[in-house]
Input
Amino acid sequence: MRDFKLVLKKELTDILRDKRSFIMLFVPVLLFPMMYILMGTQLNKDYTKNLPCIVDVEPGTADETLYRTLFEQTGVVDRKEVKESETEDLKNGDVYAVIRIKDGGITLLYNDASTKSAAVKDAMEKALNEIIRKSFEQNLQTRYNVSAASLQPFRLETVKLSDETQISGSSTMASIAPMMLVVIIMSSGVSVAIDVFTGEKERGTLEALMTTQVSRMSLLMAKFTATLCISLLGMILSILAYVISYMCSDAAKYMLGGADSGAKLGLSFVQTLELVAVCLTLSIFAVSLMTLIGLHAKSVKEAQSQMSLITLIPTLLAGLTLFMESADISLAAMWIPVFNSIVSIKMIFSGTASGTAICCTALSCLVYSGLMWIVSVKMLRSEKLLQG
Output
C-alpha cells in the first residue's frame, strides 16, 4: 500500500500540473447549460401569432373574404409582400409560409428544410382545425339547435401509466442522457491513460519506474486508480451539468416531455443507487480498456488512434437504442459491453429498469474488466513491454 500511495500521489500531481487537460473536464458544466439556454430561446418562440407569410388571393372575391375570416381576425398571419418570388422568399427565410386561396380551397406551401416553417405549418393546421370545429359547432347550434357534444358516440380519455413526475421513456432527455453520460465516462480519462502508460513508455520513464523497488502490481494499480479518478470526476461533473441545465433552462424541461407534463429531473433513492452502480462499473470497464490500450500501443499517436474508438463506439451504440423499447431488449443483450450500460441508464431514467438487468450490466462490466486486467498484468510483467 505504501508503494501504491506513493505512485498514486505522483500520478495525481502530474495530472493536476497539466491544467489544460484538467480544465477540459469542466467544459460540460459550462457547455450544457449554454446549449440548453440557446435551445430554450428557440423552443419558447410563439408560432401562433403574427407569422410572416405571403398570401396569394384575388382581391374582392369570396376567397379574400375567406382569408380575412380565417386569418386576419385571428391574428395568425402577418401578411408580407413578395420580394423576389414566393419560393425564393420562402427558401431565404423571409417568410415562413405561402398561403394560396382559390375557389374556397386553401393551399399551404412551407419549407420542410426549415424548422420555423415546419412549426408554422403545424400551427396553421391546428388553428384552422380549431376554427373549422368552432364554426361547425356554431352552425349546428344555430340552424338545428343541436349541440356537437350530443352527436359524439363516445368520449376518449387517456391516462399515462407512469407517475406524473416520472420522465417519459420517449422523451428527448431519456434518449440523449444515456448517450452523453456514457460518452463522457468513456472519454474523460483517455488523455490521462495515454500519458501515464504510452507517454511514459515513449519518454523512457516507464522503464525507470519498473527498475525501482515498487512492485509492478502497485505501479499498475496506482496508474489505474489515477485514471479512474479522472473518469469518475468527468462523470460527476456531467451529471452536475445536467442538474444545472434543468434548473436554468426551459429547454431541459421541454426535453423531459414538455413544460406542462409535470416531469422532473429527479430520481428515487433506488434509481440513484442503480445509476451509480451502472456508471461506476462502466468507468471501471472503460479505464481497464484504456489501460490495456495504453500498455499495448507503441507510441502516443498509435494510442490516440486506438482510443478514438472508445468515443466512437458508444456514440454508434447509443444511436441504436434511440428507438428501442425496454421490453424489446432481452436479458442476453445486457451482457454486451457498453450497449448494456446505455440501455440500463435509459431504463433508469424512464423508470423501467429491473434489478436483474442492472445486476447483469454491472456484473458483465466487472467480468470484462477482470479479463482485461489479467491481460494487462501479463503485459506489464513481460519485458517486451519496454521494447515498444
